[in-house]
Amino acid sequence: MEINLSARDLRAFLAVAETRSFSQAAQQMHLSQSALSTLIGRLETAFGARLFDRTTRTVALSAAGEVLASHADQLLADIERTVAAVRDVPALRRGRVALAALPSLAARIVPRLFRRYAAQYPEIDLTLADTLSEPAFELVREGRVDFAITAANPAYGDLDYIPLTTDSFVLLAAHGHPLGGSGDSVRLIDTLPFAHVSMSRHTSVRQYVEAAALQHGIGFHPAFEIDHLATIGAMVAEQLGVAALPAMAADVINADGLTRRALASPEIRRSIGVVKRREGALSPAAQAMLSLLMRQFDAADAPGQAAPDAIASPAKNA
pTM higher than 0.70 for the full model? Predict the structure, then answer.
């Protein structure tokens, strides 16, 4: 027979075992003596064994009752710990939040976000996957992260996208390069005769630049395709080419001797936002993280909104 053993059942059993009296145990449990006797009788029926040996004057644990008594305290403690753990989740005293983010965003935005979050909710475990946009979308779709901070991608229409900001593109060039002067901005078409160090073809960074070049009827053919921002910065510093990058990506490049200029005609911007699953709600811990992230952007921790003439069409990866 299946035994449905509740915390109340265990407390009632332990009360009788400790007091050796049904009347005293009933008072402790705020039950009538007949109700307590019925509860113990139900337990005995479920276990198929007497738990107490009763006489008109005494109540003693039976052999089966001794076995249950040896485990009842631990069982009750386990139940109470489980209840407390579950209640801790909405109270943000326990849980886990997993994020995915583009490498540039992981370096520029997430550390501050995690520091602020950990200060408020120190018992919540935090994990981060810094990855390109398409893998980030897949991590969300598979439920392996709560949400991702990434570039928009209309190919993932089954997921919700919440825009946060737009990220403008800039040109990085070495001081000794012909484009490494101190001008406020440079036209993209004027950079194309020079060698470019670009992110690889499967990234949104590359696809945004290609789309902007095509507005001038020119194909974009970089001299080097690199996946890591630090390598791009080092190659640009050695005058192996210039690099057209989003401002947030350029922010994490620490190479010396570089000039940074705005790209114009057209200005290139990409949408940055949060991607999450459409079905089901975020956990309380993840929702608190999302709310903090949105406040961080509202507090002008990120670039402003796109200009009307900007190239802002979403692409596949970032």
Answer: no
Helix axes 22-29, 33-47, angle to 10 degrees: 100
CATH number at residue 245: 3.40.190.290
- φ/ψ region of 160 (left if φ > 0, alpha if ψ in -120 to 50, else beta) reads beta
Q: Report whether the peptide linkage leading into residue 122 is cis, meaning its omega lies within 30 degrees of zero.
A: no
Which of 282, 281, 288, 244 lies closest to 262, judged by CA?
Answer: 244
Q: How many helices (H) and strands (E) does the chain have?
A: 12, 12
240 vs 224: CA distance, rounded Å: 9
The set of residues, in sequence order, having a beta carbon less than 8 Å from that of 51 and lying 6+ positions away, is: 13, 40, 43, 44, 61, 62, 64, 65, 68
**How far is Cα 268 from Cα 210, in angstroms, rounded to an integer?**
11
103 with 154, same domain?
A: yes
Helix (H), strand (E) at residue 148: strand 147-151
In this prediction, residue 316 carries a pLDDT of 43
